[in-house]
Amino acid sequence: MNFPYFLAQRITFLGKRTFSKLIVRVTVSAFVLAIAAMILSVAVLRGFKDEITEKQRGFFGDILVTKQDLNSSYENTPMSLSKARMDAIRTSPNVQSIYPFATKAGIMNVNGEVEGVLLKGVDSTYDQRYLSKTIVEGDTIDFNAENGANTQILISSYFAKRMRLKLGDDFIMYFVQEPVRKRKFVVKGIFNTGSQELDKVYVVGALSLIRRLNNLDDQEAGGYEIRVRDFEKLVPTTEQVNDHLPIDLNARNIVEQMPDIFEWLNMLDMNANIIFVLMVIVAVINMISSLLISILERTSMIGILKALGFNNRGIKRVFMYNALYIIGLGLLIGNALALGLFYFQEKTRFFKLDESTYYISYVPVKIFWYDIAGLNLALIIIAMISLFVPSMLITKISPIKAIQFK
User: Residue ranges of the ABC3 transporter permease C-terminal domain (predicted)?
Assistant: First the structure.
């Protein structure tokens, strides 16, 4: 029979109500708070980073291929990629899709309101899955429509409200060029990305219209967007794409194009690390305090065990088993609390955010089982290692003095 384990059970479950019982409750509460805060921090951090990253990736693609020149206007210099080069890019293992696009500045004049916009033109090869998720009214552009896609347009809910436009309404957009041109559009869908940088700037239409306005042939575009399968391999994939391009074209990934957003997201990791350190410190301090008080309250018992021939190692194991029970109980309750809040938020989106500030209207959560397992294991290991030093107090206790101690 494992006597240290048996004795630890007696101390834990059948011991008299003492001051150490109160300390144990405080320690369990500290571990509940620590693991719950750590799990929820990881869930919110991962969810937030994934949501914001997906917004940028969904609208702009992962890698952008454009003409390498000094053009800094809203309209990229026209370019084209040969079929051979596009096929070569598609053979890259991490490339999921490649499609052309173009942008053109325009002016909406509707119901007495004037608004400058940037028309993003896409064709039937464009991956509209992200736009489909952001559509609040209507549908995405139908490139198979009988009357063509040139008159269809997607506008943001910001423009719809500001210009008093509804689904199916038509309006005129002016394009400032020589000569000035105007085109009639019909609102096919209304989207809301939650990002003011997108919603207050972009509308989405057909690439063929921009080609006609700019007198481009069917092979020319403002650039190409590339979608990758694994975002973690974005940098090497960008290098591979550049290897397939002529010297006058350049491929840049979304992290290079939008460094401010991704640096801000990386700074969130620092905030999470600070929370982890603080929670571990709180849990460890409470655990050490609980162990020391438990040892001091049972000094007489330790003296008797030593007098009966029980060695220091065995006595340490008694208190370590007791500490492991406290840690386990705290982690069990903490995990249940964290996962309960996680699933509640995932299903109800109860906790909200200011969309204009955080690019999203609710607190996003996402976590994997290995995140939870890793956090629990790390906290157990750190807590148990931190207890070795205070447990050395047992070796300093004299049996004779301990038995007389009250």
Answer: 273-399
The verdict on 169 and 136 lying in the same domain is: yes
Rounded-to-integer distance, Cα 103 and Cα 105, Å:
7
Q: For residue 206, what are the β-bridge partners? A: 122
- Residue type for position 395: T
pLDDT band at 307 (very low <50, low <70, confident <90, very high): confident
Whether residue 91 is found in the same domain as residue 24: no
Query: Coil, helix or strand for 114?
Result: strand
Which three-class secondary structure state does DSSP give residue 360? Answer: coil
Same domain, 274 and 199: no
Is 185 in contact with 153 (CB distance < 8 Å)? Answer: yes
Measured distance CA(66)–CA(248) in Å, rounded: 9
Asked if residue 364 lies in contact with residue 40, where contact means CB atoms within 8 angstroms, the answer is no
Examine residue 38 and state whether it is found in any structural domain, yes or no: yes
**Do 106 and 167 share a domain, yes or no?**
yes
Q: Which residues pair with residue 117 across a beta bridge? A: 106
Determine, yes or no, domain membership for 255.
Answer: no
CA 392 to chain centre: 43
The H or E element spanning position 97 is strand 95-110
What would the pLDDT profile of 231-267 be if each residue is shown by its tens digit?
999 999 999 999 999 999 999 999 998 888 888 888 8
Give buried/exposed letters for 194-214 (b at 16+ CB in 10 A, else e).
Answer: bbeebbebbbbbbbbbbbebb
CA distances from 42 to 34, 47, 122, 368 (A): 12, 8, 37, 10
Please tell me the pTM assigned to this model.
0.81
Q: Which residue has the higher pLDDT, 272 or 48?
A: 48
The answer to whether 35 and 244 are in contact (CB under 8 A) is no
Lookup result for tokens 């809203």:
74
Q: pLDDT tens, 141-159?
A: 998 876 678 899 999 999 9
Is residue 62 in a domain? no
- φ, ψ dihedrals at 283, nearest 5°: -65, -45
Mean pLDDT is highest, among 175-179, 311-315, 317-321, for: 175-179
Q: Which ranges constitute the DSSP H helices of 91-156?
A: 129-134
Give residue 55's pLDDT: 86
The whole-angstrom separation of Cα 44 and Cα 251 is 32
Q: Is 166 helix (H, G, I), strand (E, B) or coil?
A: coil
Three-state DSSP at 167 gives coil
- Its domain, for residue 393, covers 3-55+262-404
Residue 53 above 80 pLDDT? Answer: yes
